[in-house]
Amino acid sequence: MFILICITLISAIFPLIPKLKSRHWMIQLFDYLRFQLIVLKLVLIVVWLLFFTISTVSLSCLTVLLVGLFAQFRYVAPYSSLFSKEVISVEHEKESFSILIANVLQPNSKKQEFLKLINTHAPTFFITLESDLEWEKAMKELEDVYPYAVKKPKDNLYGMHFYSKVEIADTNISYLVEEDVPSIQAKVELFSSGQPIEINIVHPKPPAPGENETAKEKVYTTLWLSLIAPSAAVQQ
Fold this sequence. Notes:
Blueprint: H1 2-13, H2 25-28, H3 34-51, H4 56-76, E1 99-103, H5 111-121, E2 125-129, H6 133-138, E3 148-152, E4 160-164, E5 168-178, E6 181-189, E7 196-201, H7 216-227
């Protein structure tokens, strides 16, 4: 029982860690484990109910787990099918477009499967992240359908490509994150009104060992994207 109590208490403490005023990756990591913590809490609740009799200790642990479960569910639920979509579906097909964003994983050898994915869904635009020269060569066969593109292959897992069926204007490749991490800015005129759409593609380095010690770049990138409103932005 002692081990189970310890696991219960640990599962209750983990969700509180991201609330600490630190952007170190070891702290921010727990922001990405909410679904896993929900599953852990559900398993612990089942174990307490099935294998232990009702007592002050078991009731206390169950209370802690249920409160924690509710708190975690509040974070996860808005992104589930239980909640309605915040983006309203387009009513006029002539003024709609589709976009496919893929982190292809640079060493991934299944390039033909990705090409089939593009041909199957036929998006108006598609964006690849982690794409190097080998990926660029593989995607060349799509250029008959996607004649407009902005390409920035890199072999450091931060290459980026933007392909479009419609003409791209005012393209710019900048380095908003770090000097070796590109970002793409571009405009397209798609709607019948001629109103340009501004595309902003960024790929901030994650707070992780071997990448960045803190999550400050994610915060700066989010701030930068908020400053370009009301233009439409695409981020990854």
